[in-house]
Amino acid sequence: MSKRYDIAIVGSGPAGLSAALNAKIRNKEFIIFGNKNLTNKLVKAPKINNYLGFFGLSGENIKERFQEHLKVMDIDITEERINSIYAMGDYFALMANEKIFEAKTVILATGVEYTRPIKGEEEFLGKGVGYCATCDAPLYRGKTVVIIGHNKEAEAETNYVSEIAGKIYYVPMYKGSYDLNDNVTLIEDKPEEVIGDLKVKKLVLNNSEIETDAVFILKDSISPGQLVPGLKIEEDHIAVDRLMKTNIKGCFAAGDCVGKPYQYIKSAGEGNIASLSAVKYLDEISRK
């Protein structure tokens, strides 16, 4: 039986880190998923003057302060990409590439999804379109697969799938050198549309088309509506109340994913609230 955490936090930006900090202070068993190097968005800020007590610092400086705080509090980030989260009644199942994590509560701190879905992506989700190549690759043994990669990490998944699929294409959404197996066909073109009937049949690109049985889209993050089935979304953000509660019992959200303004101090404050709300919820269910 896998370990069941009190709180699972998805995201390692200011909201997720603040939530983890408060979960630690409240002595809860928690796990935080994200990047040990924290978020790319954080380090891009040239100068921050609206974060109380941290004036005149760059995003890189703030990131270093955050990392120092995590080290002092002995908080470790788990580098797993969560592909889907299912409410199972009294707990949540969080699906990673080849693992399943369980938690009594979830805090979504995924930031804003900047990668818009391509035409047909959402329509064929689960019908040939997926976000975890290593999870679903055995379904396409000997078949044709296209992987659209938004980061270097996607190359490793592509190489894994190339040992199973009959024919595999890799479409990178970034520039650079690519470390791919010899049997992977590199297509440097822009994906436009996924086409099919009951399931995926074809990927249309700007200058070409590929007949395929599956299209895996490996993004830095998955939009919350696709990540958590049944989650209420309003104007492209997760709907929450002032206690950061979503419409799903035991599921909370904080930071940019719940709406503007997209500012670090606002996200950190909401992460604090979400964590306190999760702790209160856990205390309530423990008394029942």
Question: What this model shows, in words?
Answer:
Keywords: Flavoprotein, Oxidoreductase. This is NAD(P)/FAD-dependent oxidoreductase. It comes from Clostridium gallinarum. Residues 5-149 form the FAD/NAD(P)-binding domain. The protein has helices at residues 14-25, 40-43, 59-73, 133-136, 153-162, 224-227, 264-287, and strands at 4-10, 30-33, 77-78, 84-87, 92-95, 100-108, 129-130, 144-149, 167-172, 184-186, 191-196, 200-205, 209-211, 214-218, 233-234, 237-238, 251-253. The protein is of the alpha/beta class. The chain has 2 domains: 4-113 and 221-287, FAD/NAD(P)-binding domain, CATH 3.50.50; 129-218, FAD/NAD(P)-binding domain (3-Layer(bba) Sandwich), CATH 3.50.50.60. The strands form 4 sheets. Strands 1, 2, 3, 4, 5, 6 and 17 form a 7-stranded mixed β-sheet that branches. α1 (14-25) packs parallel to α7. The longest helix has 24 residues, at 264-287. The radius of gyration is 20 Å and the shape is globular. The mean pLDDT is 92.
Task: Describe how the helices and strands are arranged.
Elements (H helix, E strand, L loop, with lengths): L3 E7 L3 H12 L4 E4 L6 H4 L15 H15 L3 E2 L5 E4 L4 E4 L4 E9 L20 E2 L2 H4 L7 E6 L3 H10 L4 E6 L11 E3 L4 E6 L3 E6 L3 E3 L2 E5 L5 H4 L5 E2 L2 E2 L12 E3 L10 H24 L1
Parallel strand pairs: 1-2, 1-6, 2-3, 6-17, 7-14, 8-9, 8-14, 9-10
Antiparallel strand pairs: 4-5, 5-6, 11-12, 12-13, 15-16
Helix pairs in contact: 1-7
Keywords: Flavoprotein, Oxidoreductase
Pfam families: Pyr_redox_2 (PF07992)
Organism: Clostridium gallinarum
